[in-house]
Specification:
238 residues, mainly alpha, 12 helices, transmembrane helix, transmembrane, cell membrane, Branched-chain amino acid ABC transporter permease, Brnchd-chn_aa_trnsp_permease
Length: 238
């Protein structure tokens, strides 16, 4: 109590961190079976648990890691893997540009903290920004927890390997899909939201069918941004 009185900001930091942990808990739980699955697949490709841990700790991008591991051969096609990863993660540029004006972090803090950006942390932060600015305490608590959760679950999956069986038989592969449906529902049902989601999903599905991965990720993201801009009220563009 005395410490809180001596530092009036400490109470705010703790409140923001608690709110962050409460919001990220469903995403962290949903990430566990996906992390186990990735670790098992990576181990089957010949990666050691230490290599899986290093990849998850430094890359921290589930979609990009799955894409890389699916194309993994020996020797690894480094240029092709780097290009595929770039296409999948280029959406983070748009996500960061969207979120940046809504945070209380300084620019250097943003550059450092956005290492922890994922679809989940971005969506939850955007939803929180509807009511209040996103603080550094809120963002970092989410990011660090999700990062540590992903690191542990993927490494554990690599250790357990074939003992896990096929998580898809239990529906584990649908965990993230269900989570994203919940995140989208949390934004409400405004015309802009519905148009953005519909256009992004339609373009991503068409590109995936006619062109293939990983082009559908970037295409869907760009189409969604364009749809949101065009469907927003005119005064929002001023």
């Amino acid at each position: 109590m005395m410490m809180d009185q001596a530092n009036p900001h400490l109470k705010d930091y703790r409140r923001e961190a608690r709110a962050s942990l409460r919001d990220i808990a469903p995403a962290a739980i949903a990430a566990i079976p996906i992390g186990l699955l990735f670790g098992a697949v990576a181990a089957a490709k010949g990666m050691s648990p230490a290599e899986v841990a290093l990849m998850s700790g430094l890359v921290f991008a589930g979609g990009a890691q799955f894409a890389a591991i699916e194309a993994w051969v020996n020797p690894a096609p480094v240029a092709a893997l780097a290009f595929a990863t770039f296409l999948i993660n280029v959406r983070h540029v748009l996500m960061g540009a969207s979120l940046s004006p809504k945070t209380t972090m300084t620019r250097p803090q943003e550059f450092l903290s956005y290492f922890f950006m994922t679809d989940e942390t971005w969506a939850l932060s955007e939803r929180r920004a509807l009511d209040r600015p996103v603080t550094g305490a809120y963002w970092m608590a989410m990011g660090v927890v999700l990062w540590a959760n992903w690191l542990v679950s993927t490494t554990l999956g690599a250790i357990l390997g074939s003992f896990l069986g096929d998580p898809e038989k239990l529906g584990a592969d649908f965990a993230f899909t269900a989570l994203f449906i919940g995140l989208i529902a949390g934004f409400g049902r405004s015309r802009v939201t519905l148009v953005t989601v519909a256009v992004s999903a339609a373009v991503a599905a068409l590109v995936h069918h006619f062109v293939g991965a990983p082009w559908h990720v970037a295409s869907g993201a760009i189409a969604g941004i364009a749809a949101a801009y065009l469907s927003a009220p005119r005064e929002a563009h001023a």
